[in-house]
Amino acid sequence: MCVVIDANVIGKVFDPRSSEHARFKPIALWVTAGSGSVIYGGTKYKKELGGGRYLALFKELGTARRAVLVGAKDVDDRARLLKKLVPEKDFDDEHLVALVGISRCCLVCTDDLKFLPYLKRKDLYPEGVMVPHVYRSIADRKHCCDRLIVGMCPKRVTSLRHRKKPKARSKVAI
Length: 174
Description:
Layout: E1 2-5, H1 10-14, H2 21-32, E2 37-41, H3 43-49, H4 53-63, E3 67-70, H5 72-85, H6 94-103, E4 107-109, H7 116-119, E5 133-135
Parallel strand pairs: 1-2, 1-4, 2-3, 4-5
């Protein structure tokens, strides 16, 4: 399964020195050593990541087939449409809802409480897209699993039909 990680928790997820890293460590391990992948993209998301350390980490994860970059134009267009539908000031993470809608990702990692009501609004997603689960604490580690793999995520299972192994994924040091 893939995960969209809100910029407000990226440091908590990937920086072991963060005081809140223990809450988000299952996400970090699942992405860097397990079968998880990060979905990211869009102009606003890249701007929130900044040009430094975390954007470089996402590029490294992409090289290891542990991150999926969604086209900026697709995300930006969908985010603009969502912002027109919901012009409220508190709806400032429209790009994350756009990422979920485009990728059909089933998990969002965030600490933004004011964003949760918008994230859970079924009317903001295209037909057929599930409202995602939310990872906010170690109690949510049950969502770090393969049961909700989406088409955009790299597959990690052996094909039963052809018995071919997928390409090996290297572990990524954080």
